[in-house]
UniProtKB/TrEMBL annotation:
<keyword id="KW-0812">Transmembrane</keyword>
<feature type="transmembrane region" description="Helical">
    <location>
        <begin position="343"/>
        <end position="362"/>
    </location>
</feature>
<feature type="transmembrane region" description="Helical">
    <location>
        <begin position="435"/>
        <end position="455"/>
    </location>
</feature>
<feature type="transmembrane region" description="Helical">
    <location>
        <begin position="21"/>
        <end position="41"/>
    </location>
</feature>
<feature type="transmembrane region" description="Helical">
    <location>
        <begin position="767"/>
        <end position="787"/>
    </location>
</feature>
<feature type="domain" description="ABC3 transporter permease C-terminal">
    <location>
        <begin position="298"/>
        <end position="412"/>
    </location>
</feature>
<keyword id="KW-1003">Cell membrane</keyword>
<dbReference type="InterPro" id="IPR050250">
    <property type="entry name" value="Macrolide_Exporter_MacB"/>
</dbReference>
<dbReference type="InterPro" id="IPR003838">
    <property type="entry name" value="ABC3_permease_C"/>
</dbReference>
<feature type="transmembrane region" description="Helical">
    <location>
        <begin position="292"/>
        <end position="314"/>
    </location>
</feature>
<feature type="transmembrane region" description="Helical">
    <location>
        <begin position="387"/>
        <end position="414"/>
    </location>
</feature>
<feature type="transmembrane region" description="Helical">
    <location>
        <begin position="735"/>
        <end position="755"/>
    </location>
</feature>
<dbReference type="Pfam" id="PF12704">
    <property type="entry name" value="MacB_PCD"/>
</dbReference>
<feature type="domain" description="ABC3 transporter permease C-terminal">
    <location>
        <begin position="686"/>
        <end position="799"/>
    </location>
</feature>
<feature type="transmembrane region" description="Helical">
    <location>
        <begin position="683"/>
        <end position="707"/>
    </location>
</feature>
<keyword id="KW-1133">Transmembrane helix</keyword>
<dbReference type="InterPro" id="IPR025857">
    <property type="entry name" value="MacB_PCD"/>
</dbReference>
């Protein structure tokens, strides 16, 4: 029986090659999109799950509010880990992490850079699972001269040599001995470092204070602990530790401890939730977003649904071709369930063929998808049980979804009516087909509108007046390699006509992160006048290089010695502190030590500029003179970028003795803030294109079928004098109505969904009616062009052949 079903199915598919192609191609594209989105979602959901006892690992996350300023993020004080371990037996182990940054290292005559080094503690191996290739985790970080390298960097530095016990030199000439080689951290980890060195606590304010946040704190928690209740208790404990420090430098009792407890809250954030649910400015790495996981999953489903709708539409529209087959089968004694099996076997065979082609499409397009999504997906189809189950699941889903209705519809034919030729076909007899076409184009129009709005927002970001210049600026990120020659290096740069100016600073509005609490109007002010605000350490040239406007007072001047204890506030800080129309000459106060406040004289007010991403409001910012800088910021002449780069590289090589030259453009760093949005927009554009391609494939087939069904009518109309355009409009009218209804459904849905997305930006564009109308126009135009081919072909046919056809 099944052999007979298969034989008939193959014969039918080969006989109707045009419709078979449309179905197979549409289903293949839909399945390939679903597979790639599945791999994307699987990767996003797998972050940090490679650690043992992953459900017991948590990160401390702070939410602190002083006055009306708020700091929220995973950065915590240094004493947190040991204090929590000493006072709460729910914690099994804890570890601190802090970025060291990148470092140029030397071994023998070889010099190379380690991109990301992490300061940490031996207890990192008690919290995280970090497999070693060589060495012992128990002794790998035994002292401050120990270093652990990942596999890639150990190979780059030592080649085939055994790295254990070998010594490498950092750029500052400090020697480190390799005590271990770890496996490369997987790409689906929010921890991104290539080497580890020991974190050494020093006897200074930052290491002892509960009011200085600089470290990431992770814990392994015992099983069965009420995490929310534990979070409340560690918050109370943290307040108790903070209050004595506050009272110590205020010289009096601090604010109401009850109010304090409402302002300080620490929670425990599950490790596996960090990548998709945590989005502060101070994250360890660029995180994903659970919303995009849901959105892309839904889009994949709808694209596959569009492909299945094509199959249903074409199968039911062409029901007359199979009606006699069904009628004869029933007359010869076939039961309805046998007919159903026949048509389901066709849809399942088609699904299997489509899946084979889908796998070929995935294999050839996955590298491009990886580039688009910023991933490194390399799935194993049959060696990975979840993937294999998904493959089978997709085949069953498509087979059942696409085949069920046609099978039930065709098997319901009454033999007497079928053999008399009284079966209705075409669009007029297909209200379900009309609904399905509307659904297809509603989805496609929505995706087109969403893509247009995303790119409209990205264009808004690119053209938004930020309050500073970001064009024609080069950033050298290895300024520390210049040591005490930074000033002379910059002086040499200034001699070249292609260089306008330069500055040294570790803080750029792309964004940078550093905050302090400022007090005013007197050093004896209570806690309620404390403002937790961002503070950038800059030099006297920073304001001019970035063209930041000083609206009151003046910029820093290195010749004025007192400027080392001066500050420039932005407008938001002046307003929040209520410093009045003329804040110049007034003082604000910040920590100098646990027992001493330092007065800072206000010498200028900067016009507000966007030093954070446009997702956030412009906060309170202070600018101070500082000596340490990781970056050199170079402003070039607009039309002399190549000459500037050539001169900078030449001076760099001469100053550093030939060390590697590395630079970035400010624009690149700025755009990187919106990398997620850019990738989302590109993915939406591709998915919108694919969805409308699949929808138009189905429309193309239906238009061909409709033109075929109206052959006689077209011939009669032409004999009576109808023009080609009139006949084209007649055939297109039925489909045009459906596309218009689809737009009416998609427009308000697009506005609602994308308006919600735009609320994630504090500064955003508006959704104009013109954008929605343009999306509808694109959808309608593509649909009309798709239909017009067959309509024009039918209209240009000689009436003699049209009438002879019947």
């Amino acid at each position: 029986m099944w052999k007979n079903y298969l034989k008939i199915t193959v014969r039918h598919l080969l006989k109707h090659k045009f419709y078979t192609f449309i179905n197979v191609f549409g289903l293949s594209v839909g399945l390939s999109v679903c597979l790639m989105i599945f791999f994307y979602v699987q990767d996003e959901l797998s972050y940090d799950r490679h650690h043992e006892n992953v459900d017991q690992i948590y990160r401390v996350y702070g939410d602190l509010t002083f006055n009306e300023s708020r700091f929220e993020g995973p950065i915590t004080p240094y004493p947190v880990v040991q204090s929590y371990l000493d006072n709460f037996n729910e914690f099994e182990a804890g570890v601190r992490l802090k970025h060291y940054g990148e470092e140029l290292i030397q071994y023998n005559n070889k010099t190379l850079k380690i991109d990301e080094i992490m300061r940490t503690e031996p207890s990192i191996f008690d919290v995280f699972t970090i497999p070693f290739i060589k060495g012992d985790p128990k002794t790998a970080l035994q002292d401050e001269t120990s270093i652990v390298l990942d596999e890639d960097h150990a190979t780059k530095i030592f080649g085939d040599e055994d790295p254990i016990g070998k010594t490498i030199l950092f750029e500052n000439k400090k020697a480190y001995t390799v005590r271990g080689v770890m496996k490369n951290l997987p790409s689906n980890s929010h921890l991104e470092f290539k080497a580890m060195v020991l974190m050494v606590a020093k006897d200074n304010f930052n290491y002892r204070s509960w009011l200085s946040n600089n470290y990431y704190s992770y814990f392994k928690v015992k099983e069965g602990v009420d995490i929310e209740e534990l979070g409340d208790r560690i918050s109370m404990h943290s307040v108790e530790k903070m209050l004595p420090e506050i009272e110590q430098f205020l010289g009096k009792a601090a604010a109401d401890p009850v109010l304090m407890r409402q302002s300080v809250h620490y929670s425990l954030q599950k490790l596996v939730d960090i990548h998709l649910y945590s989005h502060s400015d101070s994250e360890m790495s660029n995180n994903g977003n659970i919303s995009y996981v849901y959105i892309f999953s839904a889009i994949a489903f709808f694209i596959l649904l569009i492909a299945c709708i094509n199959y249903i539409n074409l199968a039911t529209a062409r029901s007359a071709d199979r009606a006699k087959e069904v009628g004869i089968r029933k007359v010869l004694g076939a039961a309805r369930k046998q007919v159903i099996k026949q048509f389901l076997s066709e849809s399942f065979l088609l699904a299997v063929i489509a899946m084979i082609f889908a796998l070929l499409i995935v294999e050839n397009t996955l590298p491009y998808f990886n580039t688009l999504a910023g991933k490194e997906l390399d799935p194993s189809y049959f060696g990975n049980l979840p993937v294999f189950i998904v493959l089978i699941g997709f085949i069953l889903f498509v087979g059942v979804l696409a085949g069920s209705y046609p099978a039930l519809f065709l098997s319901s034919f009454v033999p007497s009516k079928v053999l008399k030729g009284s079966l209705r076909t075409g669009m007029k007899g297909g209200s379900l087909r009309s609904i399905l076409v509307i659904g297809q184009f509603a989805i496609s129009t929505f995706l087109i509108a969403a893509t247009l709005i995303i790119f409209k927002q990205l264009n808004y970001i690119q053209n938004k007046e930020l309050g500073y210049d970001r064009e024609h600026i080069i950033i050298l990120g290895d300024a520390h390699m210049l040591k005490d020659q930074k000033k002379s290096f910059r002086n040499e740069l200034a001699k070249h006509s292609s260089i306008k100016s330069s500055s040294s600073s570790s803080y750029l509005p792309v964004p940078s992160w550093n905050n302090n609490t400022m007090y005013w109007p007197t050093p004896n002010a209570d806690l309620n006048t404390g403002l937790l605000m961002d503070v950038f350490n800059i030099d006297e040239d920073y304001v001019d290089v970035l063209n930041i406007e000083i609206i009151k007072g003046r910029n820093f001047d290195r010749k004025i010695l007192t400027d080392s204890t001066a500050i420039i506030l932005n407008e938001s800080a002046v307003e929040e502190m209520n410093l009045g129309e003329n804040p110049l000459g007034k003082f604000v106060y910040t920590y100098k030590s646990p027992t001493e406040l330092q007065p800072l004289k206000i010498i200028g007010v900067a016009k507000n500029f966007h030093y954070r991403s446009l997702h956030h409001q412009i906060g309170e910012l202070g600018l101070r003179m500082g000596n340490y800088s990781q970056d050199i910021i170079i402003k070039t002449q607009a039309n002399q970028l190549d000459q500037a780069l050539e001169h900078i590289e030449k001076q760099w090589s001469a100053t550093t003795g030939g060390l590697p030259f590395k630079y970035h453009f400010f624009d690149e760093k700025f755009n990187n803030m919106y990398k997620t949005e850019q990738q989302t927009g590109q993915l939406f554009a591709v998915l919108a294109g694919l969805s409308i391609l699949i929808a138009c494939l189905g429309l193309f087939g239906l238009a061909a079928f409709t033109a075929e069904q109206k052959t006689k009518e077209i011939g009669v109309r032409k004999v009576l004098g109808a023009s080609v355009m009139q006949i084209v409009m007649m055939i297109s009218k039925e489909f045009g109505k459906l596309v218009l209804i689809a737009f009416v459904i998609a427009a308000p849905l697009s506005w609602f969904v994308m308006n919600e997305w735009l609320t994630t930006f504090e500064f955003r564009t508006e959704i104009n009616v013109s954008v929605l109308l343009f999306a509808g126009f694109i959808s309608a135009l593509i649909a009309w062009l798709t239909m017009s081919y067959h309509a024009i072909k039918a209209a240009r046919t000689n009436p003699a052949f049209s009438l002879k056809y019947e």
